[in-house]
Predict the 3D structure of the following.
Amino acid sequence: MRRIAKAYGVGYDTFLRHGLGRTGPGARNLDRISDAELVRLSAGTGVPVDRLRGMRTGATMARVNERIQGWLLTEDGRAALDQLRVSLMCMARQAEADSRARERHNEF
């Protein structure tokens, strides 16, 4: 959705308001998008409604979980997941260090 808004040269909230009529605090929660909104989005993007449903967070997480469960069944898969865990920990430490550096910079 954000990419579509950007392609049209409008902000995300503006796109949601004008494209789907979504406003207010829950406007960005597209996991609770109505069938009518999905049909409207499908008509505007050319993406089938069923595919849009599959893009919801819950559907995506179910696919990810299924894939991870499959990886856990093999030695190579477990090694890849362990490598991913280490990489994510390094990224988190770097993000934390960057945040602290920005805070120190902003103190001056």
